[in-house]
Amino acid sequence: MTTTTTGLRAVPAVGTAHTRVEGRDKVTGAARYAAEIPFTELAHGWLVLSTVTRGRISSVEDAPVLAMPGVLAVLHHGNAPRVDTDYVGMLGMPPDPTIAVFQHDRVPHAGWPVALVVAETSEQAREAAEALVVHYEEEAHDVTFAKEHPDAYSIPGPGGPAVTEKGDLEAELAASPVTVDAVYTTPEEHHNSMEPHAATALWDGGRLEVVDSNQGTIWVAAELASLFSLDPASVHVRSEHVGGGFGSKGVRAHQVAAVMAATVLSRPVRVVMTRRQMFSLAGYRSPTTQRVRLGADAEGRLRALEHSCLSLTSTVHEFIESGAGVARVMYDAPAHHTANRVVRLDVPSPTFMRAPGEAPGSFALESALDELAEKLGIDPIELRTRNEPAVGPVSGLPFSTRNLPACFEEGARRFGWADRDPRPGLRREGRWLIGTGTAAASFFVGAMPSTAAATAEADGTFTVRINAADIGTGARTALTLIAADALEVPTDRVRVRIGDSDFGPAMIAGGSMGTRSWAWAVTAAAGELRERLALSDTIPPEGITVRSDTTAAVGALAQKERHSFGAQFAEVAVDVSTGEVRVRRMLGVFAAGRIINPLTARGQFTGGMIWGISMALHEEAVRDRNTGALYGADLAGYHVASNADVPLVEADWVDDTDPDDPVGIKGIGEIGIVGAAAAIANAVWHATGVRHRDLPIRPDRVITAGPHV
Amino acid sequence: MATAPPSTYSAVTLNINGEKHTLTVDHRTTLLDALRERLDMTGTKKGCDQGQCGACTVLLDKRRAVACLQLAVAAEGREITTIEGVAEGDQLHAVQQAFLDLDGYQCGYCTPGQICSAVAVIEEHAAGWPSAVTDDVRPEAGPPPLTPDEIRERMSGNLCRCGAYVSIVQAVARAAEADAAARADRAEQGTEHEGAAA
Fold first, then answer.
1. Where do the 2Fe-2S ferredoxin-type domain residues begin and end (chain B) (predicted)?
2. Where are the domain boundaries for CATH 3.30.365.10 in chain A?
């Protein structure tokens, strides 16, 4: 028995800068990621992907490959274990059939997994996989995403209903003295986390053990249990360190293939996606074509707003990129129409990617607002201020908080916006035309039920167990600060353990909802533990554990429009003779709830803004309509912003505590990218006088457009 | 009796972080896979396996190299430094400390490569190597100021998808300042020492 003390600390940890609790392991190389946990008798699996885009597998010539050195098995549709896909997963959707590997002979897109070669070493597995001959009956395919497609249809998405309509759009547009009618496009974009997807599966004493890199172990464990018809308690998934996710690290083909191979071979099997395979198997953001029509009175008040977004999905899975959802939050008008539509093509299934819907949607809407400001001769910030809605434009619900004007005010002051001459093409420095631009940002705020356990250990320390995932967000550290405050002890007495499906149900790292959802459960468990300890000054050897479940509390949240907001500012330099666009500086000011750890929070915001630079200027996956596959599916062919592409990017925040959250959190993982590309595109217009409505703003597009001033 | 290994395998001795490791490798085995799969030194990361991301950056004879494009059999005789060999025991290298203190990372997967790269960048800069953004590249010009733009250019072989570049640049600058101060101290002590000897 030992004694413990809480309540000895006056200064809260939340709100103060704290280096990452796992930081030392990360800078010394000691932190082990999914493919780095050693197993005896480990075998290596290598996926074989289809080389045709549509058709049927007529034969898999596995015999010669099975005779190659070290090869243990070739799994394909003719011999693989069967899986059950007739279920609804944790995210409320049926599984993407892409994960149900080797179940049939059909090929619905290029890069469809057709076999897994397992061998003693990765070199042997790779050579055998490359040697495996697969014959196909090829069929004609359609991968062309056009501005309009006759087969497009509307479905609800993560952002809400498919279509919202109020007012007479055509009448209000006709009555508006100033209108904008423009089409914007964004390309296919890929997450490209630095750590490729990796999973090791093995059976241990009747239990399926999976060491994985994912955004939620309970999510992966539950889906593997459904797929393989297992008792959920017999599936254990761990994911301690995750080398980035951005929406792509859910249930994927590699985990399922690894489980199949571990089952067939009765030994541990690791499957790691190659970088090129990630472009087919890891999901991506659909390209979008968006039309925005705005009508305003002479003072800039919107009379009509239409935002429609067309995206694509695969022929096997319905996922919609809800770009038009952002208009349902940002601006109101007597006539207000939004619609999200999708078309099915012979392409891999798209998925959630950092700020799904909002990232491409804000590019279109916030560019259109800038065009309207130009036509009206009103400052773009003033135009947005005049159109601040009192309640949700579509829902009519009150906002929990909406501090967008404060973001613009603070951002404009720090960026020096008041000194800006609104006319385009006036600033020149040598070969460079200089311009500045701004845009608004918003992202949905939510919480999901989670459970946590807080233990007072006999040695006077505390252990918090919660099935959180730290994909680089700093969640592990944030939860340490939150637990320390709830326990009223110094942070060095608190150890937070995450990434283990045995810790029980919890929200995934997604939708900017992770840290808020987990913090709620941690606060509840740790707070109750502190109260228990106040009544008893001794700790038994096994410690004292308190568990929490936020299901009821989260379910009791009042219906409101809950969002974080932000103001993005960018300065660019454009050389119209080479087509080069350089972002010179960026500033984002956010109203995104209470900031737990300023050190890591700043990185979340600036990291998102750098994604915005990358989206505005670099990223574009180009699909070859003849082969149906991508050109240059690697990090040379698909450029993501490198260090030399990124200037000083600054982020800050205004006070904005969510009144209905026990910690005051909103969520900060995604809002940094929202509006960032629009701010850059608007700055390019200010520099050159040319509206670039198609991303990325490539050198050839800049050269072709030239300056128009 | 043990049979001889097949001819597609060779025994190699790799000098890693000052220690010699003898192992038999498949000739196709990259230095990266030898480190990660054979020697359980997993600090060096595999991000693309084709020389495009820099996550596997190690130092070969103190110069930066991507371990995924280096065959293990060809690394014999080289002085190999990985992230596990950057610190002095428990004492973090100035670059590691700066990455930790300034949050020069998020997910941490590119971090070992960034840190190895930064260690070499500071050495390369101190030795007078210019970069693509150096204005004056005459040999007699000496090292250019290690401005943020110089750091950005020199660190651009290491992608960070989390977008931690702002704090990476700050961390490299801080470590470079500490390194320059240490060099100045050493130079001063060396002068004093010479003076005392004379």
1. 10-86
2. 23-31+448-555, 366-445+557-709
Out of B42, B55, B82, closest to residue A194 by CB? B55
Residue environment code for A115-148, b if the CB has 16+ CB neighbours within 10 A, otherwise e: bbbbbebbbbbbbbbeebebebeeeebbbebeee
Catalytic (active site) residue A670: yes
Under the banding of pLDDT at 50, 70 and 90, the label for residue B7 is confident
Looking at CA atoms only, how far is residue A353 from chain B in angstroms?
13
pLDDT band at A1 (very low <50, low <70, confident <90, very high): very low
* ipTM for the whole predicted complex goes beyond 0.90: yes
What whole-number distance in Å separates Cα of residue B125 and Cα of residue B154?
A: 9
Spatial CB neighbours of A187, under 8 Å, sequence gap ≥ 6: A287, A619, A620, A621, A622, A695, A696
CATH number given to A366-445+557-709: 3.30.365.10
Q: Which of B99, B115, B161, B172 to mutate to test the interface with A (most CBs of A within 10 A)?
A: B161
- Point out the residue among B33, B103, B109 whose CB comes nearest to the CB of A599: B103
Residue B196: pLDDT over 50: no
Residue B193 binned pLDDT confidence (cut-offs 50, 70, 90): low
Best CA proximity match to B124, nearest among B93, B148, B151: B151
Distance CA A599, CA A633 (A): 34
Over 80: is that where the pLDDT of A589 sits? yes
Residue A475: its chain B contacts at CB < 8 A?
none
pLDDT tens-place string over residues A120-172: 999 999 999 999 999 999 999 999 998 778 889 988 877 678 999 999 999 99
Mutate to test the interface with A, among B116, B146, B165 (most CBs of A within 10 A): B165
Q: With contacts defined as CB-CB under 8 Å, which chain A residues touch B92?
A: 24, 27-28
Instruction: State residue B198's pLDDT score.
Output: 38
Residue of A nearest to B27 (CA): A123
pLDDT of residue B192: 60
Q: CA A200, CA A209: separation in Å to the nearest integer?
A: 8
Task: List all residues 6 or more positions away from A67 whose beta carbon is below 8 Å from its beta carbon.
Answer: none
User: Which residue, chain included where needed, has tokens 């003693």?
Assistant: A120
- What pLDDT digit, counting tens, does each position of A201-259 carry? 999 999 999 999 999 999 999 999 999 999 999 999 999 999 999 999 999 999 999 99
- In CATH, the number for domain A23-31+448-555 is 3.30.365.10
Residue contact A246–B169, C-beta within 8 A = no
Residues in chain B with CB shorter than 8 Å from the CB of A191 are: 161
Q: Which two tokens stand for residue A590?
A: 């956010």
Residue of chain B minimizing CA distance to A23: B100
CB contact under 8 A, A635 and B103: no
In tens, the pLDDT along A639-648 reads 999 999 999 9
Q: Based on C-alpha coordinates, what's the Rg of chain B? A: 19
pLDDT number for residue B197:
44
The answer to whether B92 contacts A27, with C-beta atoms less than 8 Å apart, is yes
Q: Report yes or no: A31 and A25 within 8 Å, Cβ to Cβ.
A: yes
The confidence band for B195, taking pLDDT boundaries of 50, 70 and 90, is very low
Residue B1 has pLDDT above 90, yes or no: no
Domains of chain B: 9-85 (3.10.20.30), 94-197 (1.10.150.120)
Which residue among A36, A192, A610 places its CB closest to the CB of B165? A610
Closest of A465, A469, A463 to residue A451, by C-alpha: A465
Kindly list the residues from chain B whose CB atom is less than 8 angstroms away from the CB atom of residue A676. Answer: none
Kindly state the tokens that stand for A314.
Answer: 């695969």
Measured between CA atoms, the residue of chain A closest to residue B45 is A195
**Does the pLDDT at position B142 exceed 90?**
no
Residues of B in contact with A195 (CB under 8 A): 45, 47, 107, 109
Q: How confident is the model at residue B6 (pLDDT cuts 50, 70, 90)?
A: low
